[in-house]
Amino acid sequence: MTVRPSRALRMPSGGGSVGRVIGLVFTIILLVLIMTLSVSSCSVTVESGYVGIKTTKFGATPGVQPQELGPGFHWEGIGEKIRTYQTLQRTYSYTREPNSDGGENEEITFSDVLGLPMTADVALTFRIREDKAADLYATWRQEFDAFIDGPLRTSVRAAIARETEKLPVACNAQQASEAVAAVPATDAAPIVPGTPDAQDCPGQLIGPGRQIVLQKAMQALQREWSPQGLEIIRMEWVGSIRYPESVLQAIQSRTTAEQNTRAAIERVNLERANADARIAQARGQAEANRLLAESIRSNPEVVRLREIERTLGLCPLNANTCVIGQGVNLSTLIESRNAQNEGNR
C-alpha cells in the first residue's frame, strides 16, 4: 500500500524556497548598501574649477603629495585624505556686517600717520594657480576657507596698514576746530603740529589718498603671494572708510570756517570794488573841475559871458554849460539888454 504525502506536508518545502529567495534579495541589497557607503566614505569627487590635494600618513613620502588631483573621482586609501582647493577666480569681502562670505566681523583695521584708528570693508579678488595649490596647502596647512579668513586676511590688513601709516587722515585736520576758533579766518590754513606741512603733504585718506593707498597695498600683496601661487587680481574699498568721529567733527568745523572765510572775502571784494568805483567817479569829477578852472583862468571872458547868459535868463544859475538856440545872435541880445537897462534908468 502506497502512502501519499498530504498537501499539508508538501507546503513547507515551497515556503522554504520563497524564504531563501527573500533572504538572497536582502543580502544583495545589504551588500549594495555596504559598497555604496564604502565608496562614499573612501572616495572624493573633485568638481570642475577645483583641484584635489592628497595627504598620506604612510608610504615612502608621507605628508602632502606634490601632485594635484584634477576634476574627477578619486579613492582615499588607508591613511589618506583628499582636500579640495578652489582654483576659480573668487571675490571675497571682508566686512563688518555678515554677508555671504561669513557671519562674523571681518572688517580691516588700520591707522593714519598720527595713529588715529580707522576701519573699512575691503573686497579682494584672487585665484589659486592649479599647479601651486599643493604647495600653498603644504605651507599653511589650512582648509581653503580657513586660509582666506586667516593668513590671507592678516596679510591684507598688514599691507593696507603699512600704507595708511604714511599719510594723515586729512591734512591739518587734527587740530582744525581749535585752530579755527583761535586764529582769525584767513586764506592761509594753519599748520598743525605733528602733521606734514601743506607743501609736503602728499595726500590724505579723505580724498585721492585712499585709492593710492589701496593700489600700493595691492602691489605689495602681489609681490608677497604670487611666488606662492596666489594671484591677486583686484582689491577695492567696499563703501567708505569709517573715520574717527573727532576727525569728522574737526573737518566739518574747518569746512564751515573756510566757507565763512570765502563769503567774507567776497563781501570785502564787493565793497572794495564799489569804493574804487566811487573814487574813480570822484577823480573824474575832480579832473573835470580842474580842466574847467584852467579854462576859465586862461579865458576870463568866459566868466563874463556866463554872467551875461544868466542875466539874460538863457541859462540857470547852477548850470555849468549853456546852449544858445541856433540862429540867435548873442551880441544883439546883449545890446538889446543894455538898451533896456538904460531905458529903465
Automatic annotation (TrEMBL):
Keywords: Hydrolase, Membrane, Protease, Transmembrane, Transmembrane helix. GO terms for molecular function: peptidase activity. The chain crosses the membrane at residues 21-39. It holds the Pfam family Band_7. Residues 45-268 form the Band domain. It comes from Brevundimonas variabilis. The keyword Protease applies. One of its GO terms (biological process) is proteolysis. PANTHER family: MODULATOR OF FTSH PROTEASE HFLC. This is Regulator of protease activity HflC (Stomatin/prohibitin superfamily). The keyword Oxidoreductase does not apply. It comes from the Bacteria.
